[in-house]
Amino acid sequence: MSDSSQSATPSAATETKRRAMIEAEGLSKYFGSFAAVEDVSFKIHQGEVVAFLGPNGAGKSTTMKLLTGYLAPSAGVARIAGADMGTDRNAGSKVLGYLPENGPLYPDMTPRGLLNFFATARGLVGPRRRERIAQVVEQCALGGVMGKPIGKLSRGYCQRVGMAHVLLHEPDVLILDEPTAGLDPNQIHEVRQTIRRLGQNKTILLSTHILQEVDAMADRVLFINEGRLVFDGSVGELTQGKPLDQRFHELTAAG
């Protein structure tokens, strides 16, 4: 059952002061008779860092693909910075950085070659191109591996390379699908630190099933179970003074 009675709804006055940068309106995705996502609606406003929480197979990755335009919805609308990702994906993509789980990186390329490739794709040229590559290399601490084949890099460095190319065009909105999956504790700490820094001036939706990520990075939590949104509110409202793992169990059992 839905936990909507515990959800937090921003006041109308608050919503008018902040621009909605990520919007899901009645999003549904069906594969045959299977509902991967069903009637999901929420808004994420400028400057929010929101954790998208739920068990494996709950619909997190599918929802993110709908939001970014990688999948077409069976019903509903996804918007990035007001742009309908079904009819005006190019406009939304200009302000969007998307890091999918296990995102494709070309193993035979070096980070230098990959960043130059994506800079070309994004239309970055001349001094601006060199400036942005230098900035993301510093931001993601890639200086020591720029000439190494990506296929020879650790999982942590591959995540940094992925983050660097996502940031290359200075997007206002970041959608990150399980960015710490498969990393060791030191690498997780580094990625979390990067996301905290980015969250100071960007809107971020961060998918995870790792409960510690919520406390570490999020201002707000969306919880999805069996394709439906069952909670939308602050971390404190989610926990209700209980351990996170207990609330996780309660919300998934209620689905």
Describe the fold and architecture.
With 255 residues, this protein is α/β, with parallel strands linked by helices. The protein has a domain at 14-93 and 214-255: Rossmann fold (3-Layer(aba) Sandwich). It has helices spanning 12-17, 60-68, 89-93, 111-121, 126-139, 155-167, 185-198, 211-217, 235-239, 244-254; strands spanning 20-31, 34-45, 49-53, 75-80, 83-84, 96-99, 173-177, 203-208, 220-225, 228-233. The strands form two sheets. It has a six-stranded mixed beta sheet, sandwiched between helices. It has a four-stranded antiparallel beta sheet with strand order 2-1-4-5. Helix 5 runs antiparallel to helix 6 (155-167). Residues 1-16 have low confidence and may be disordered.
Properties at a glance:
37% helix, 10 helices, 255 residues, 6-stranded mixed sheet, 10 strands, single chain, 4-stranded antiparallel sheet, Rossmann fold, alpha/beta
Summarize the structure.
It contains ten helices and ten strands. It is an alpha/beta fold and 255 residues long.
Strand order of the largest sheet: 6-7-8-3-9-10
Strand content: 25-35%
User: Care to count the β-strands?
Assistant: 10
Taking the alpha carbons of the first and last residues, their distance comes to 5 Å
CATH superfamily of the domain at 14-93 and 214-255: P-loop containing nucleotide triphosphate hydrolases
Question: What does the radius of gyration come to?
Answer: 18 Å
